[in-house]
Amino acid sequence: MLVVNSLAKSYTHDKQSLQAVSFKAAPGTVTAVIGPSGAGKTTLLRSLNQLISDDAGQVLLDDQDLRQLNKRALQRVRRNIGMIFQNYNLIEPLTVLENVLHGCLGAKSMISGMLSLYTTAEREEALALIDEMGLSDFAYTACRQLSGGQKQRVGIARALMQHPKMLLCDEPIASLDPKSATLVMQTLRQLADAKQLIVIVNLHQVEMARDYADHVIALNQGQLVFDGTPDALSDTQIQAIYA
Ligand SMILES: Nc1ncnc2c1ncn2[C@@H]1O[C@H](COP(=O)(O)OP(=O)(O)OP(=O)(O)O)[C@@H](O)[C@H]1O
């Protein structure tokens, strides 16, 4: 379970990018974070795994407050948190398999990681995930030859190599055509259900939030202005969120 309590962040003294944001997200659910540009969506997502340090509040993942952990303990917990990025963050000249295997680097010794020494079990798991993402024909293809939708599914497979409890997805479909975007959202939905993941996804497309999320939170100028189910999100509320 993810429990966020009164999370606050200011990058500069004159402006709060997150103002006392609180919400909960359960395993097996997709939470969509919506709101206009500059509302604080990326700041919130990056605070959830402490990629940026926030100023106040709590981020409890299974009752453990990530804000209270020392560097080493935080690194351990981060292995349970997968990240999906708008621009995929793949190593383009490397193959799909190599990129997916990079997902287990955090759990390997420095030497094994540097020498890319992977076990047979890790390779088999990576190939199974590539298959699960519908990319088995591309396992040995360089990522630069893939479409955006395929690259994003490589990014998801790489995150799954970490055996995450939680997936943080920062605008994962912003660069994709509608068909690829739908496939990525369907994949995230299925993963939440099948693997009981906590999926948090920043979205610009309210329709996608309505179609795939269990829970929507909306930010405007760093404040939580909506927290509820997609059904409860009326057109009037959407207008107010984006006002
Ligand atoms: N490194 C930074 N230094 C100073 N201000 C920042 C920094 N990063 C973000 N901000 C400010 O914090 C606020 C929230 O930004 P954030 O990127 O979280 O919004 P967002 O909702 O993700 O926007 P977008 O949808 O455009 O990606 C904005 O006003 C932004 O200018």
TrEMBL record:
UniProt keyword annotation of Transport present: yes
One cellular-component annotation, GO: membrane
Species classification: Bacteria, Bacillati, Bacillota, Bacilli, Lactobacillales
Protein name per the record: Phosphonate ABC transporter ATP-binding protein
Domain (ABC transporter) ranges: 2-243
Domain of life of the source: Bacteria
Keyword Cell division set for record: no
Keywords from the UniProt entry: ATP-binding, Cell membrane, Membrane, Nucleotide-binding, Phosphonate transport, Translocase, Transport
PANTHER family documented for this protein: AMINO ACID IMPORT ATP-BINDING PROTEIN (PTHR43166), PHOSPHONATES IMPORT ATP-BINDING PROTEIN PHNC (PTHR43166:SF6)
SUPFAM superfamilies: P-loop containing nucleoside triphosphate hydrolases
SMART domains named in the record: AAA (SM00382)
Gene Ontology MF annotations: ABC-type phosphonate transporter activity; ATP binding; ATP hydrolysis activity
